[in-house]
Specification:
- 2 copies of one chain form a homodimer.
- With 412 residues, chain A is an alpha+beta fold.
- Chain A has 2 domains: 3-308, BirA Bifunctional Protein, domain 2 (2-Layer Sandwich); 321-406, Rossmann fold (3-Layer(aba) Sandwich).
- Chain A contains 13 helices and 23 strands.
- The first copy, chain A, has helices at 3-6, 21-28, 44-63, 77-83, 85-88, 111-119, 167-187, 233-236, 269-272, 295-305, 334-347, 361-371, 403-406; strands spanning 32-36, 39-42, 67-68, 74-76, 94-97, 103-106, 130-139, 154-164, 192-196, 207-212, 219-224, 230-232, 250-265, 275-277, 283-285, 287-294, 307-308, 311-312, 323-327, 352-355, 375-379, 387-392, 397-402.
- In chain A, helix 11 (334-347) links the parallel strand 19 (323-327) and strand 20 (352-355).
- The two termini of chain A are 20 Å apart.
- At the A-B interface, helix 1, strand 1, strand 2, helix 3 and strand 3 of A face helix 1, strand 1, strand 2, helix 3 and strand 3 of B.
Amino acid sequence: MKQSLAFIPTLRDMPKDAEINSHKILLKGGYVKQHVAGVYTYLPLAYRVIKKIEDIIREELDKIGCSELLMPALQAKEAWVESGRWANYGKELMRLTDRHDREFCLGPTHEEVITTVVRDSATSYKKLPLALYQIQSKFRDEFRPRFGLMRGREFIMKDLYTFHTNEADLDEWYLKVRQAYINILDRLNLHYGIVSACSGQIGGNSSEEFMVLCDIGEDTIAYSTTGKYAANLELCGLEEGATAPDGGTIKYAKGIEVGHIFKLGTKYSEPMGLSFVDVDSSKKPVIMGCYGMGISRLLMAVLEQNNNDLKVLWPTEIAPFKIHVIALDKPGTTNFEIAEDLQNKLEQKYEVLFDDRAESAGVKFNDADLIGIRYRVIVGRRAAEGIVEVKDVKENTTEEVSIADLTNYHFE
Amino acid sequence: MKQSLAFIPTLRDMPKDAEINSHKILLKGGYVKQHVAGVYTYLPLAYRVIKKIEDIIREELDKIGCSELLMPALQAKEAWVESGRWANYGKELMRLTDRHDREFCLGPTHEEVITTVVRDSATSYKKLPLALYQIQSKFRDEFRPRFGLMRGREFIMKDLYTFHTNEADLDEWYLKVRQAYINILDRLNLHYGIVSACSGQIGGNSSEEFMVLCDIGEDTIAYSTTGKYAANLELCGLEEGATAPDGGTIKYAKGIEVGHIFKLGTKYSEPMGLSFVDVDSSKKPVIMGCYGMGISRLLMAVLEQNNNDLKVLWPTEIAPFKIHVIALDKPGTTNFEIAEDLQNKLEQKYEVLFDDRAESAGVKFNDADLIGIRYRVIVGRRAAEGIVEVKDVKENTTEEVSIADLTNYHFE
């Protein structure tokens, strides 16, 4: 794709209102644009990454038997009255009234809707288990939105709900989803800990959080250098440098919560009448689990862990493009035509961003540092001889390669 | 994927409140579930088709140089005051107030937001043209929502906005997008007409509608049997059976509007201050185009044209699955295991839905008719001999095929 059409409006100056690196990069690199506090447009570069994160999530959830649907953002008050949350949720729930004076809210989460969706259908033990998820914009009227996408008022989430006839089946699915979360975060190249609300033990708990370890975010996490133990600082009380339960050494980080998995039990199914007829013909409430993952937050968490002094290097699977072809000469020159030709050739095999703008080399390289693509093919002074430079940002190497060899070059 | 986990809650009885075939199929086939009037959950089967429609749209728009982003649903009143639409839009605009008493609306369309997104960046003729689109849930508080997804209050749309330095460039892009729309609708196997607001002529107009030709919908279209002429009945006044301007014969249909393309000119850029510095250093308002396509409507339009007495046959590119493996025997039997084995083998090459439910053959075939997959592999009484039946719904043929040959069978 041509960079002139890609709409990546990088900024010359450092944005004033960004406190953390990922937020600075998002604004300076032309990834997002704020509409109002806590409400953003994802510009093309960020949205390409987000779609790739979404596809990884879909792959890992589909693999364990989950099924994707899409629920509405508009939710009728009635369902929230049934669950008891209409009165209790408070000001973070965005409420509105339609032209017929009927009350609605904008979904911050979808336990109520999903319960109404399955309750007419999951009427027998034969129809269970079920595991249904969606990827969708959610709404929460934060009192003080901050850190860019970290605590927004409109944000992208994956939410999964599972439905079971008994606790043992819920436990089995909970562990399957937990493993899927581990696979997803590993593929995103993240350094994270899994923190129980009660202890640092793995599995069998009623709620666990997936915390990306960085010195930003809103919770302090104590984690073991082995990577096998993590806990909320307030709950475990372990000092930095102490020996962790798994034998490693305790370190601290202010973590970013990117996932939260719960065993809900019958919290929603009982008040909302979601029940099934069991093998013995008795009627029982369905047992539920719920599993959230913050996608716009993941984007920031990955950026926070994959930048060096605001120079970005996206993990392979979610990089917005595979190759960044940079023409040093201006449109209309022979060298530019060579670069354009290279773009077309490489695009048959790879996702290519072609910097075709009439900008100086300095501007182009600064922008490339923010865009964060691993391989740069620089078409410069030796282009007419059939030679270009290939820079591998990850390995920090540069070599001259003949154009003839480039389509067979080993781009990982 | 196993049908027991796919959550396709088909209904035994015909839903009472559905008037048109596509709406009946959506409800009876377990494609959607109504939350409240005009607000639906897209269940997994419908959402698989929708994602495929979306990918076709992305492919065709990316091919002509458009770039995808995602704007917020929450839109601040201020932008709508700038454009003058806050006062004029009326009751169809859903409005709400945040916890700080700031006013917002839920986007029915995004001219205001996109104008604010590009106006800080597209400041020079060097930065234009631009073509930016999104695929997103939109909101419109219809007085009387009806026909299922046809006229909903929350619905999925693709909206594209283009930005130009002069009218000639807008004209060029308008024709490129128009051709992309033709490609999209052709790939969806739709029979449609392109109707100008003023005449039936092609191109060069300020606004055209893409109308799928069926005897439902809200407008009557006069179209030529050649497929090359279509016009709004009210405007052209041609009688059914008359000779069309292109030599064909005029027929009537009540059309479904699935796309609308506009030359906006400076309608938004002038009041909202979106301007650029031209080659001659003069400041001018940016010239805009806008292009909508209703994705949830497309789903209904395709269903309306691809069913025979409520039996569905999805067009190849957007079919929810390629092959429907149907086990006639119950879980636990040898034949069932053979079917399961077949699912695993075929899934290495194709998208497969495996009916693994403990239901009767009659229920399974009725459901298969609603699910609409072209190829059915029926694992029945001859399975133990290594023989299954392959039914091609499109060609209406059935043949016995040996399991050994099946992975090399020509599924188109």
